[in-house]
Specification:
globular; 19 helices; Growth Hormone, Chain: A; 82% helix; 406 residues
């Protein structure tokens, strides 16, 4: 029990760092556009900054394939450590990266290289954390443990938000562009080193030790997964729609609150941070309840609530904040993505199959979701909510029908 708890805590640290960096890059995109790209055109400089951000997502599947392969044939622990290393080093490099004015186009190239390197590492980081924890905890505590992992991932968003808010509160716009933007990235790199040290204390999972002792390790686990686990990969794609909906409601939609709701930037950030706290609480409570009342029942119930409250807040009326926060609490259904995904693949190909399906789906959805929300947020956001609602219910139906032992 104590070992499972320790490994759950250590496993969560990388995910916190990932989402922390995610928020920082988005919030400082305007700064990066000015200091790391040619200044011929402000619009295109910003577009290039977002392309650099998106490059990390497009690199995720390649990292997933490589790292997950070695996780299935060499062990979860070592790959988990290496992926963290490839996240921490780029964060530190970014904190000290010279500007375009100092080193010219090399600054732009290094920025792209940093994002791609992080994307390769992140391709295995989150799914590895899910698998690592699921193979340590008992089935009776699976919901709470993976609900905790989902909550800590979202905690990274909150910390990134607060770090950004602090920078803009204590420094002028000129100071932020000149040096202050580097502070939160340096802090992230520092805590990344701490997390890296803690991961040296991780133990190999009992599940991997078992397949190794029984000589069940496959030469090419991904090929086997593609042949035998097609339905599992479809379920992963559906659950990834639910996961990326969190990006839509927590990160993208709040950028439009000032215009939609007629509030100032501070109020918009307050709403966003309250929403993040609600989804953290929702993930924890739903994971806990799932262990007691059953995964399928709890997921279906809160999916229904998410659909009702999500469509309700899409009207942006005087009840918006209440419905928005209730929808985000219900959106704790993101906790069921790792719960279901980790149980629908055989142990000997779990890392390869899950990581490939999840990261391919996330690369595509993570790239197009900002454009979808930008098109729908004002009048048609309820359609996006309904689409997510259907994907969640369909995933529950498929898992329950095909994997009745869960």
């Amino acid at each position: 029990m104590q070992k499972a708890f320790k490994n759950t805590i250590y496993a969560s640290l990388g995910g916190i760092l990932e989402f922390y960096d995610f928020v920082l890059f988005i919030f400082f995109a305007n700064v990066f556009a000015k200091i790391f790209f040619p200044q011929n055109d402000d619009f295109w400089s910003l577009i290039y900054a977002y392309v650099a951000f998106g490059a990390g997502y497009l690199a995720r599947p390649f990292g997933a394939i490589v790292f997950a392969h070695f996780a299935d044939i060499k062990g979860r622990k070592n790959v988990f450590y290496i992926s963290m290393l490839l996240m921490v080093v780029p964060s530190f490099v970014l904190a000290f990266l010279p500007t375009y004015e100092s080193i010219g186009l090399m600054a732009t190239i290094i920025l792209f290289a940093i994002r791609i390197s992080q994307g390769l590492a992140i391709g295995a980081e989150v799914s590895s954390a899910w698998i690592f924890v699921s193979e340590f905890v008992s089935k009776k505590r699976l919901g709470l443990a993976l609900g905790f992992i989902s909550a800590t991932l979202t905690l990274g968003l909150l910390l990134g938000n607060l770090a950004t808010l602090a920078v803009y509160e204590y420094f002028s716009k000129e100071e932020v562009e000149k040096f202050a933007w580097r502070i939160p990235f340096f802090i992230g790199g520092f805590f990344g080193i701490l997390a890296l040290f803690l991961r040296t204390k991780l133990n190999e999972t009992p599940a991997f030790k078992n397949i190794k002792s029984k000589e069940k390790i496959l030469n090419f686990p991904l090929l086997q997964a593609l042949k035998t686990h097609k339905k599992s990969m479809l379920i992963c794609a559906l659950l990834t729609i639910v996961l990326t909906s969190g990006v839509a409601t927590l990160m993208i939609l709040p950028q439009y609150f000032e215009g939609l709701l007629g509030v100032n930037k501070t109020t918009a950030l307050l709403y966003q941070n309250l929403a993040i706290i609600m989804i953290i609480l929702g993930s924890l409570l739903q994971g806990y309840l799932a262990d007691i009342l059953g995964h399928f029942k709890i997921c279906a119930f809160f999916t229904l609530l998410f659909g009702i409250f999500g469509i309700s807040f899409s009207f942006y009326n005087e009840w918006f904040l209440m419905f928005y926060l209730l929808a985000c609490f219900s959106q704790g259904i993101i906790a069921f993505a790792p719960i279901f995904m980790t149980q629908i693949f055989k142990t000997e190909l779990r890392s390869s199959g899950l990581s490939f399906a999840y990261n391919i789906s996330y690369a595509i959805l993570g790239f197009i979701t900002p454009f979808i929300v930008n098109f729908m947020y004002e009048k048609y956001f309820y359609i996006y909510i309904a689409f997510t609602f259907i994907a969640s219910l369909l995933s529950v139906f498929l898992v329950k029908r095909s994997f009745k032992n869960l």
